[in-house]
Specification:
mainly alpha
Length: about 400
């Protein structure tokens, strides 16, 4: 008895509306060219064989393949559909079973759709049949990488972060590049399985950390990387006006660990090295200093948002206390970053053939210092000698409370 080809899901097929839009765009292009050739008395196929027309056709086919890849992920991954995830959470489903709505991984129905696009590409474009497959593959893999980050599957994300820029290196030409792409696919598949095994993806706060089994050390990438000033706005209680909202208790902030800072710094340095060694994109020391200065200012703005020094400049001069350690500690890390960028720029200019390696190491060091520099946000908010500034934009409740108290 012959084994039947599994029909995974009718939902795998692209919607009729999506197919109609693609067909309409393609027919409008070909029909317009035919009408222009007939009206101008040109030789049939003269306009259709122009390189510009080939590029337009390639753009339509590539766009269709990319949209189809996003459609596949958006329809079948629970992280995209909150109602689907909520229903799935209420069922006895586990990662050992197929997803009820349909598979996330490519199936033979995808081959039919991509085969049709590739056939049109081989017939009507200069890029042949490869373009739709390449666009679909890249869009699909990058989308899965973003979903791994969204579901906080950090270890595969870290591996993929180091693997993705490797094909840019000159030493990866030929078979090594194919090996890198095969490794990217395997790690992405491994990460997808780990992500589904961790379903449901509960967001845990620092006040209720996830239970860690005894005897197991916490993973390097289990600490969520957050921008405190941005995440703080989402956990504040209802607006009770200034200064009560600023003084109200808030969930504790888990500082970024040294290991996480080192991993992020190494990843940024590796990307810079691959970009400089592969496509030959040099990063001048001046540009590096500018970027470091902007990053230092952003960190300072995040820390000092809504806060001010306990003494202004004139009070410091009048009292003779120029430096206030409790407040001025917030400037240490930004100043150190700028100083490292200046010293690193001088070192890059004298590094000669090792400029790519030196620049990459400097970028890794700067990111490490920015993320792990002290004080942490929690230390700064609880022990910093600062005062709360009155908000510039006053809400209606702020105005009402201010008038009633005055």
């Amino acid at each position: 008895m012959k084994a039947r080809i599994p029909f995974h899901s009718n939902a795998v097929w692209p919607p009729l509306g999506m197919v109609a839009v693609f067909a309409f765009a393609y027919v409008m292009l070909e029909g317009g060219l035919w009408i222009i050739e007939r009206a101008a008395g040109l030789r049939p196929g003269l306009l259709s064989s122009m390189p510009e027309v080939f590029n337009v056709r390639s753009g339509i086919l590539g766009t269709a393949a990319g949209i189809y890849a996003l459609f596949r992920l958006g329809r079948f991954h629970p992280a995209f559909n909150s109602s689907y995830a909520a229903w799935l959470k209420s069922t006895p489903w586990s990662s050992a079973r197929p997803l009820p709505l349909g598979p996330i991984h490519p199936v033979w129905q995808d081959g039919v759709v991509l085969g049709a696009l590739a056939a049109v590409g081989a017939w009507h474009t200069s890029n042949g049949w490869q373009l739709p497959l390449i666009v679909f593959g890249f869009t699909y893999l990058i989308g899965l990488l973003l979903l791994l980050a969204f579901t906080q599957t950090w270890f595969p994300c870290l591996l993929l972060g180091f693997l993705w820029p490797c094909p840019l290196l000159p030493a990866m030409d030929g078979l090594p590049r194919l090996g890198i792409f095969a490794a990217i696919i395997l790690v992405t598949w491994f990460g997808l399985r780990k992500s589904l095994q961790a379903f449901p993806w509960e967001r845990t706060s620092s006040d209720n950390p996830p239970a860690v089994p005894p005897g197991r050390a916490k993973s390097v990438l289990e600490v969520q990387v957050q921008i405190p000033a941005l995440s703080r706005a989402s956990v504040q209680a209802s607006n009770v006006g200034w200064p009560f909202q600023s003084l109200s208790p808030k969930p504790g902030k888990v500082p970024i660990s040294i290991s996480t800072s080192a991993a992020v710094g190494a990843l940024s340095g590796w990307w810079i090295y691959c970009l400089m060694a592969g496509p030959q994109m040099p990063l001048p020391p001046e540009a590096l200093l500018l970027i470091a200065g902007m990053a230092a200012l952003i960190r300072l703005a995040i820390y000092c948002s809504g806060l001010g020094p306990s003494f202004n400049l004139w009070s410091r001069l009048a009292s003779g206390q120029i430096i206030i350690p409790g407040f001025d500690q917030v400037f240490v890390t930004p100043v150190l970053v700028v100083a490292l960028a200046i010293a690193g720029g001088i070192l890059i200019r004298h590094s000669g053939a090792w400029s790519s390696e030196t620049t990459a190491a400097l970028v890794a060091l700067l990111n490490f210092v920015l993320l792990s520099g002290r004080p942490t946000m929690r230390q700064w908010l609880l022990t910093g000698q600062h005062r709360y500034r009155f908000p510039v934009v006053r809400s209606a409740m702020n105005k009402q409370l201010f008038v009633s108290n005055s």
